Structures
1.
Amino acid sequence: MNTRLIRYLPILSWGRHYTRSDLGNDLTAAFIVTIMLIPQSLAYALLAGLPAEAGLYASIVPIMLYAVFGTSRSLAVGPVAVVSLMTAAALSNIVEQGTMGYAVAALSLAGLSGVILVAMGLFRLGFVANFLSHPVIAGFITASGIIIAASQLKHILGISAEGHNLAELVVSLGRNLGGINWITALIGVLATGFLFWVRKGLKPVLTKLGLGAGLTGFLVKLGPIVVVVATTAAVWYWGLDARGVKIVGAVPQSLPPFTLPSFSPALLQQLLLPAFLISIIGFVESISVAQTLAAKKRQRIDPDQELIGLGVANIGASLTGGFPVTGGFSRSVVNFDAGAATPAAGAFTAVGLAIAALALTPLIYFLPTATLAATIIVAVLSLVDFSILKRSWAYNRGDFAAVATTILLTLALGVEAGISAGVLLSVLLHLYRSSKPHIAEVGQMPGTEHFRNILRHKVITHPSIVTLRVDESLYFANARYLEDRIQARVAGDKEVRHVILQCSAINEIDFSALESLEAINDRLREMDVKLHLSEVKGPVMDRLAEQHFLDQLTGRVFLSQYEAVQGVLA
Amino acid sequence: MNTRLIRYLPILSWGRHYTRSDLGNDLTAAFIVTIMLIPQSLAYALLAGLPAEAGLYASIVPIMLYAVFGTSRSLAVGPVAVVSLMTAAALSNIVEQGTMGYAVAALSLAGLSGVILVAMGLFRLGFVANFLSHPVIAGFITASGIIIAASQLKHILGISAEGHNLAELVVSLGRNLGGINWITALIGVLATGFLFWVRKGLKPVLTKLGLGAGLTGFLVKLGPIVVVVATTAAVWYWGLDARGVKIVGAVPQSLPPFTLPSFSPALLQQLLLPAFLISIIGFVESISVAQTLAAKKRQRIDPDQELIGLGVANIGASLTGGFPVTGGFSRSVVNFDAGAATPAAGAFTAVGLAIAALALTPLIYFLPTATLAATIIVAVLSLVDFSILKRSWAYNRGDFAAVATTILLTLALGVEAGISAGVLLSVLLHLYRSSKPHIAEVGQMPGTEHFRNILRHKVITHPSIVTLRVDESLYFANARYLEDRIQARVAGDKEVRHVILQCSAINEIDFSALESLEAINDRLREMDVKLHLSEVKGPVMDRLAEQHFLDQLTGRVFLSQYEAVQGVLA
């Protein structure tokens, strides 16, 4: 079969070998994931500022499309916490929450994000995601988790509060604290407590009771459904909605509707940066889950095709009443653990959620939003992990600065400013680090042909020779630094007649660095000092040989540093 | 003497050893530079959109302050073409040219730029200038030269035209071409032609006549003064100003006045980015001239102190009726060639110009602006050098792209957009390049302990071992690429039991890369494959040893690749 077609439609590869045993495994996994996803997808719609049904819609068509275009066998695509938060942050700046325009803008955001992802996949631009360093992502996720949890407190307490960063949220909550609805607060606190207990306390109990790991895991996953059923029943039985407990209310009984996003240029322009950030964050979250799970079965993930898969899923979300989606960590792990063999498990999950959207929505009329908020809080607090601060501090102060800045700015200014500052800072830190590369002056270790740092070892040197070893590729950001260093070293020492650059650690020399080498060569010539090179790597030498630099070089090029010193002294 | 004081006040160092012979040399150089600077400084004021006297003022106090704070013995500080163009571009967006607000905004721009430079010097942030790669600067200077020349055509032709990029200028010139003042055009064309001839044609003639090199050089430098005198006399004698020839007009006879820039926060905010760009461009231009000249006398330039020197010079310009200044290429070379021994030459030049400002300004009343425009055009066309396109193309397509983009965007959109795009593009290109590092799978050369690329050499490999050599430091932008490559290589080959990373070219591993190595180790463990490291550099090993990574590593760390293969097979 056409390999190009298989690259773009991975379903053609696994679909041909689909077995009855795969079917059984996929159906089981789909059942478990569906049960987990019903409360989760409602909750994330709430987080994104959308009506509850949008969460179900966003979990149906996108997951089916990903099954066709994605390369991971286990990834479950749908609304996730951080992306939902970013969606709310992006849209609230532009349109008022709860309006029709808000829902349409959500469709546009998903569509735009989808187009960006597909384009990045087709042009193989996945490397852009690499600019998000691990520390920045870890800091961002932690800070987002805190903001999300804080943003849900209003639902737990039954008050209103606004804000897209921690300060705004805390101030707003504090101001409205007088209006607490105590029944809502009781439901919220009990639900949150119960869910925490299910996570931390129930598992050991069940295991002690002698239940198998599989059954234990399944029962723990039922926790959210139990809370949903219990609190819904309570509101319905005691008529608590009449006493001020906010409920989900009427949800249309419907399959995902066909929707069209707005193509207003002004709107799209405002959404462009948020859509880009959502795409990148979503992709990074998704690909790392996908690769971790694929490794367990020695399967391969194609990052560029993943971009296409996620992009098509988002375009699907924008056409079926959804909002931005990506591969989620917890649901994918559940899917994998439940034995999902192929992406068909995702398709079956979609069928399960479609049935829920058609048949079960009347049952959640009385579901309190406080319960959904409790689900979110318990889910996101597992994202909060301050240990990254300690670990990065131990490893490298620069990385620590990137984490700390990302966390602080995300908390203080919101998600977009936080992630942008984090990326900018890590790029600047990288440039700064490589702009002052380690340059050692070296001499010969007595009795050997090895050359070592004169500051660390007792080595043999010659007053007329300065040998510098640059431990970094030469490029524009550090080329001028080398000029400065050489000029500073030679200008003050009238005995120097030869400068040897030991190039063993130089993997590349860009055009700027070539011009700097020419400048160094010219300036040394003015001082009557010769410039020599030693241990130049093959590809670097090939490049240099094409240019006039080697003709102009006042000195010579030596294969080894030892030969260089011998040759110069001879 | 206090070394800290000497660092910040280099005059304390050279001033103590000042000799009578230095005085003679400095006075001669100052005389020649003064003659050269009078027309040039008037012209650059015109280019910056300011009254002619601003050019003189900007050449007096700044050069004296630089003499106190700067480290170059030969640098001549004052208005230069590119910075004047950037000044005009920055100010015209904010205030109307010719108004009082415009001149005040110019003072603010110089002051802001001065503060930025001093701050960068005190905090040793000179490395920021390194992000301007050679190709980007070369492209920018070339494009700026073209824009400057085009912007002066209106003065040559005696028409009006507006615009800060080539397209705007050409359209505007074309529209007004009907209004040519033919007398102005005659003066302009003759002056331009004469100046070109002085540059290219006069020198050989004089040399043939047997004049010495020094006298020839001096006579050639008199060219602009000759044109100024001749055209001024012509306008005065024939009363051409009454026939539409634009003249400089009344210039106050005065020493530089004491002025205060505007501190309006709104204005300063609008000027911040332009001031930053002007500071960086000015610094880069200045430092490369300074270093080239210093090398000829084996002197040392301190880049951080240079920032302070230029910064104080600009603050001086803002307090004495000037505009942004920097070290100029041509005047510094003239200063050096004329024998300037110390920065005192600059101070004497300032005295010369102060005398000119006091005594000679009535003489330039009838000086036609077309003559000044001719001076500018001839000066800047020497900046235009398209050979950078050819040279960078030959060396590296990425560098070529950076040059071409910078030239095109500067011409099309103006100086600020051009330089910003160039910097952004070269940073992105660098990140892109290092995000896909060269990773070679290597095998043992028969009969040796060397390991080479399996694609290039006939080498010995073992089906259970994959050895990868990464030719780049590992950091966030390429860490995930390594994950992808290893996963892709191992997932498809069931025989692999060991992956060895040959780390001989890895100069650094940042925190992101460490986390990636942990992920690789974990994923390989899932596939029942061990990860080993070989030839890890000392500092990298020190870092790794502080972390838990080495404890978790499924395989071992070997001193050499040869030992690694032996150890794994044993």
2.
Amino acid sequence: MRVFGTHTETLLYLLCLGSVQAGKLLVIPADGSHWTGMKPLVEELGRRGNQVVVVIPEASLSMGPSEHTTTLTYPVPYTKAELQVGVSSSLVDLFSRDMSSDLDKFKSFFHTLEVLNMFMVKNVQSLLYNKDLMAKLKDMDFDAILTDPFEPLGAIMSEFLKVPAIYKQINHPCNIELLSSQCPSPPSYVPRPFTQFSDRMSFWQRSVNMVRALLQPAACRRIYTKADVIASQFFQREISMVEIMGRAAVWFMSSDFAVEFPQPLMPNLVMIGGMLHMKTNPLSQDLEEFVNGSGDHGFVVFTLGSMVSELPEAKAREFFEAFRQIPQRVLWRYTGVVPKDAPKNVKLMKWLPQNDLLAHPKAKAFITHGGTHGLYEGLCNGVPMVMIPLFGDQGDNVQRMVVRGVAESLNIFDITSEKLLGALRKVINDKSYKEKMMKLSAIHKDRPVEPLDLAVFWTEFVMRHKGAQHLRPAAHDLNWVQYHSLDVIGFLFLVLVTFICVMLKTCQFCFRRCCRSSNKKKKE
Amino acid sequence: MRVFGTHTETLLYLLCLGSVQAGKLLVIPADGSHWTGMKPLVEELGRRGNQVVVVIPEASLSMGPSEHTTTLTYPVPYTKAELQVGVSSSLVDLFSRDMSSDLDKFKSFFHTLEVLNMFMVKNVQSLLYNKDLMAKLKDMDFDAILTDPFEPLGAIMSEFLKVPAIYKQINHPCNIELLSSQCPSPPSYVPRPFTQFSDRMSFWQRSVNMVRALLQPAACRRIYTKADVIASQFFQREISMVEIMGRAAVWFMSSDFAVEFPQPLMPNLVMIGGMLHMKTNPLSQDLEEFVNGSGDHGFVVFTLGSMVSELPEAKAREFFEAFRQIPQRVLWRYTGVVPKDAPKNVKLMKWLPQNDLLAHPKAKAFITHGGTHGLYEGLCNGVPMVMIPLFGDQGDNVQRMVVRGVAESLNIFDITSEKLLGALRKVINDKSYKEKMMKLSAIHKDRPVEPLDLAVFWTEFVMRHKGAQHLRPAAHDLNWVQYHSLDVIGFLFLVLVTFICVMLKTCQFCFRRCCRSSNKKKKE
């Protein structure tokens, strides 16, 4: 078999040209699961000899030092505890309010975004006016910046330092990557975020999708309103995040066409979905014993993501009741109240090695909220899912897996032990879920380059060539009217109308001449 | 450095699943340079253990047995000599007529297409009604078919055998790959074939481009008219080539964004431009001595492609005169009349090792017609070009290199020794051409996977998974009105108008009530 390693030859060639060297990369990540998704890439870039400097606020939920990198922190006017309280309070709404309607969910998500935005705006102000650190970063003369479009600070820093920017995004709420890269995205078959539509829409769904598509640019402006104001003040000229992100060299999209519906992509949109699928480790002895305890029935893995480890007592009871009635054992990441008569087949843990568990041959089902990382771990390991979307992009993620016949979806607001039991039995006992999941998993994993390698390659490419100008479409130089050829259509329409008028007039003239001469003849 | 070879792991995984095995591939290539472009891929697929069956007509210009494959031939009602005469006669027009206008060139190209089409239609009829061979091919139970959209036979065979099709195209005259894959291609910045526009167009150019874009579907139907009739007769139902090609699993595009202007691509459009850049061999002793003969001045390589090895005597004289005045030596693939006083620095050859010569450090310039293969060889080796487009896609190819400042363009119809000399001196002595070419070459060669490996990967992917259904957009299930959301726009417009009318009526009603009551009060 031919080894897919001729990139090495290219690198050797570039080395001869003197253009390969370790690059200098500035990383400004976003907090929470966004950092989890970026960390392996950052560490791999450092491990390969690049000088990687990660700049993070002193208070953060999950960000901290990473291997093979230098971490610099800057003071912020809030503490980690305040951040935790802010985020938790915005998530409490998830279960306390009645949010069965899509509008309520949407409102709640925007409330969460507002809360996060407040902290991110504080980050922006804290770093931009931290003269010492800014001067230090300027002196470092970076080749590129790797950042997250969720965190406006990275975009502003790329503009300030005048270095090419690489954005790594996870299902951005207003599809900023499509908007900024000028990617055509026909609303007739590309569903917009939060619609939970598939790519095959009814007339009504297409109408809703069209309205959402029309509102998207406004939504993007809304999300970045405060950041736009700060950036304009800082640069002392009118500037917007959408404009700055339009200058991106490359976008990494945390998706893959095994999950995402097929759609056109611009050349600088690179799909790296499933990047986190790391090598699995064997389970600890006690876990191994536990999962083998129910023999061929196997076991179920249950987590609701890094942000949600508790449930209201009544809701939790529904889960315990359902688990009591299945022959499988259950591993549940849960720190909430435990009923006295909790079933014996359930093991509660503060943290569980999710990927290692899902890779175990006896894993029969995965109960998940449908976060991107969990989804790809389930997909990589071919485990059918029962999905309970909580907020954000999770509803769309879940829809994509349900459409492919590899998952069942439940609503957290009206979940009962019967419903959960029904869904669990379906995905475990109906063989079609496992078969379809194995096929989808094989397609997802059958790729010419591993996602992490692809992300490393493009980051280093941007550092080597000081950008990726050859991937930048001329569409960026056109205004809205020109891009959509409205001026040309108007002109061609005018030409056509003029042509038809002239033709009609000519015919009329000829006809009259003919009539006149025939009348003359008659008279003669 | 991390080795980009984890594809091996995936393959091993698939091997465990039992889904990796040598595939069975049917190849139906097109003749001439199209076969030259497909042969390395076909041979590599065979070398990797796939069962590759190449089906070609008994008479052909350049097709024949290839390594590691089985070649089957079928009788056709023409001889190789007739084919050669047909093609040559269509190319004679190139120099004999006055074809300085774009329209003349376009007409001449369509004439050439018609001639080629006549032979291709004969191929279709010869194979489709060759019962023995058709039965044999049916029995072989292929996993996929690799073919060229230029040769309608391959598309019809994919429909007949019901196997997924992979098309490898080189700048198709009606952009069939974009049309068939439903790829958005905004005419405001994506120039159409034969326009020789760049991606930055004036208003007038955008208007012309828009008209060309509107005519493209009709052009595609025109090209395949005869094939459509034969296919409809064969399948006994109305069917068209565009419809069959719309079911393609994957399209290989012989281009790269180092040459092509950036534009959106569908997920099943795979760019493999530069696939032919094979390892170079050292020159033979006499060639090495010849190219070193002019010391640091270096040498010039001159070919006009596989189809044109002669020139009218007067034209040829202009070239000899120009070459006489340069300090470089010249290697020219030429079989025409040689003047008695031909300059000593010119070596004429029937065939020359183009890639090996271009890879030589003393190669200073490349005089070429701008065919795709030659263009990528020049690009890979970083040699500035003087380009003389003759027909077909060459004008567009040349434009792309000229825009990037790595080539000068000349018109064959009014070429003189002065003009040639000026262009040659410019690309050799003005260092910017070489510098820009080296940068472009580095960008072109800096890629995560070599084009040949990428083509091999996707061909085997289609064989492994019986297609690439996950890359097929839902756009294929929409009609023209639905795709462009015209029904939705109409509906939303109606809703808006109704809303405005109701609002106006309500205001009117309220206003009247108010007026009436105030009038009443006044009267009272």
